[in-house]
Amino acid sequence: MTEKPPAPPLDPRLLSVLVCPVTKGPLVYDREAGELISKRAGLAFPVRDGIPIMLPDEARRLDA
Amino acid sequence: MDVPQIFDRRIVRLHRDRAADQVDHVRPVLEEAAGRLLDRLDDVTRSFGTALDIGGRGVMAPLLRGRGIATVAGDLSPRMCARDGGPAVCMDDEWLPFAPASFDLVVACLSLHWVNDLPGLLAQVRNILVPDGLFLACMPVLPTLAGLRHALMEAETAHQGGISPRVAPFPGLRDCAGLLQRAGFALPVADLDVIHLSYQTPVGLIADLRHAGETNALCQRTRKVTPAALLADALGRLPRDDDGSIAQDLHIAVMTGWAPAPTQPQPLRPGQFTTPLEDALRDSP
């Protein structure tokens, strides 16, 4: 068994109020990848140990 | 609009990351400030269901949750905001990642003084508060660390013939009131409180600053290593009381402001008055 343990779930209330820090637009939570995706900004914000890292500098840039 | 970059946010984050394991050394100071801040909640009749804690260093969020308020802890350092194990977000205070009207209460305890765009931050805070939500904050103001600032300036002048910025340029109390007003908060109030701190040795003061993640993060700081002789000279120049202790009082501005709501007391506009001034003057003795 080499599967990673599932990431701890994000607090649902927290998820309901989080937006993209750059555009203030909505985020899509990709639980598999552990990322919060802002389509408008083209950024994917990582979630590490249940903590969303909402820093534009650390976000993965989505390819157009 | 370009905001002047006074503070190096990358370094602020590094300092807070480094301090995450050591911050318990200064817990008494943080708890004192947090306790005084939360005393203000006892003075208001409104109850709060949800809160955002900005930079509470693992001290503020548990206190809020203890009051039955569902709290999200936010910090620039992921290690710092994860300290108490509750819901946490790593965020840049200058780019708040929350939707409008997300929280009843936003609290910032000793965490706003490394922010470049304070007016921008306060405007965002007002926006994420529900109408009639409360912003409650305290931040160090002048003359906090004045003794250390002067000692460093004198020592650096003596050793190197010039000075470099080493202590953050804290705002004054009046600036804080003005900032609240400018950000559009209703019923803005800023008042002064002093936490008396006294150190037996200068090294204790420096260690506390490091444990709190409060060492120099100014953009224009000197990149050279501070010579030990300079630092020793500066620490020797710190003003001492009669008993030899070093007083470095923490002067804090306690700021409260409400997100505007129609239910709040409103000033009347000119022409809305119903009693002529003439009558009022005639009735008075």
From TrEMBL, chain A:
Entry-linked InterPro entries: Trm112-like
Pfam family, one: Trm112p
Superkingdom: Bacteria
GO CC list: cytosol
Classification via Gene3D superfamilies: 2.20.25.10
Sequence similarity: Belongs to the UPF0434 family.
Protein name: UPF0434 protein CD178_01320
Lineage: Bacteria, Pseudomonadati, Pseudomonadota, Alphaproteobacteria, Acetobacterales
